[in-house]
Amino acid sequence: MKRTQLITTADLSKEEVDFLMEEGGKMRNQRTDDLKGLVCATLFFEPSTRTRLSFESAIHRLGGSVITIADSKSTSMKKGETLEDTIRVIEKYADIIIMRHPEAGSAERAAKVTQKPLINAGDGGNEHPTQALLDLYTIKRELGRLDNLQAGFGFDPKHSRTIRSLAFMLTHYKNNEFTFVCPESLVPKEDMLNNLEGRGATFNIAHNLDDYPKFDLFYANRLQEERFADHDEFEALRKKFVITRKLAESSQTKVLNPLPRIDEIMIDVDDLEQAAYFRQVENGLYMRMALLKYLATSYYQ
Ligand code: NCD
Q1: What residue ranges define each of the domains in the chain, with the CATH number in brackets?
Q2: Active-site residue 50, yes or no?
Q3: pLDDT tens, per residue, the chain with 301 residues
Q4: 141 among known catalytic residues
Q5: Measured from the CB, is residue 161 less than 6 Å from ligand 1?
Q6: Which of 55, 99, 259, 263 to mutate to test the pocket of ligand 1 (most atoms within 8 A of CB)?
Q7: Using a 6 Å cutoff on CB, does residue 138 contact ligand 1?
C-alpha cells in the first residue's frame, strides 16, 4: 500500500484504515526517526488547537521539523495571494504539507498544484479525514469493535465536518446504525445522506434524546457557530441539546467529542467512565504519527 496525500475520507480503503489503526496503536509513547530530515509545514488558515498542535507534536516525536502558519492574517494571502500560489511556494520549502482552510474544497484545490505529501486538516464544512481516523480508533479502543454499533451523532450534522467524515468512515464496517440528533434546521445535508445511502448505511434523524440509552456511542459536536448564516439562529439553538451528567449516567453509552466542547456536554460529565473525549485527544496524536509515517514512507522511500 502506498499513499502520498489524504484529501477526503473516501480516499482511504478499509485496508488502509485498518492498517493505520494498527500502526497508531504502536505509536503510544514512542519516539522514532521516521521523519528524520523532513521539514513539515502546518498551514492553519482557520483556528485550531488540537489538530495543529497534535500534528506538530507528532512530527517532533517522529524526528521531523516544523514550520508553521497559525494565523492567515500573517501571510501574503492577506495581500490577495491565491491559495494555489501559496501552496506552490510552500512546497518549495516543505517536504510535507498539512493544511486547514475555511473553504470547502480547498484541500482538493491545493492537491491540484502539488505532488508533495499533503494532508487535509479540515476544509470548511466539508471534511476532516484525520479526525475521522482518530475517532474511529477511539471507538475501537473504547468498545472493542467497529461493527454492530448504534451510533448517535449530535447536534449540528448540517455543518459539522467531523460528523460527516466519521459517519462516512464507519460505513466501511457492517451493521452500524446512525442516528443524527439535531434541531429541524440542522439535519444533515442531502449529499451526505445520499452518500451514506449509497454506501448501504442505515440512518435515522431524531429531534430529541429519548433514545440516548440505546446508543453504544454518542458523538457530540458543538453547533458550528462560524458556519451559521444567521447568528440569531445559532443563539436560539445553542443550548437546545445538552448531555447532562444525569443523562450520561443513565447508560453505558460512550461519549465522544472532537472538541472544543462549548455547550453540548456539561463539565460534570467529564469524570464519568463514559466520557471518552480526553482519551480521544491522546489517540489523535498516535493516529497522526501513523499517518505521517505512512505518507512519508510512501513518497520518500
Ligand atoms: C473540529 C473541527 O475543527 O472541525 N475540531 C477539531 O479538529 N478537533 C470540531 C469543531 O471545531 O467543532
Answers
A1: 5-127+284-300 (3.40.50.1370), 129-280 (3.40.50.1370)
A2: yes
A3: 999 999 999 999 999 999 999 999 999 999 999 999 999 999 999 999 999 999 999 999 999 999 999 988 888 888 899 999 999 999 999 999 999 999 999 999 999 999 999 999 999 999 999 999 999 999 999 999 999 999 999 999 999 999 999 999 999 999 999 999 999 999 999 999 999 999 999 999 999 999 999 999 999 999 999 999 999 999 999 999 999 999 999 999 999 999 999 999 999 999 999 999 999 999 999 999 999 999 999 999 9
A4: no
A5: yes
A6: 259
A7: no
CA–CA distance, 75 with 77 (Å, rounded to integer): 5
Q: Is 128 a catalytic residue?
A: yes
Whether 124 lines ligand 1, by a CB cut-off of 6 Å, is no
**Is 28 annotated in the active site?**
no
Grid cell in block for residue 147? 461493527
The reply to whether ligand 1 has any atom less than 6 angstroms from the CB of 122 is yes
Question: What is the value of pTM for the model shown?
Answer: 0.98
Separation of 271 CA from ligand 1 center, angstroms? Answer: 22
Rounded CA-CA distance 127/277 in Å is 20
The reply to whether ligand 1 has any atom less than 6 angstroms from the CB of 164 is no
In the annotation, is 51 catalytic?
yes
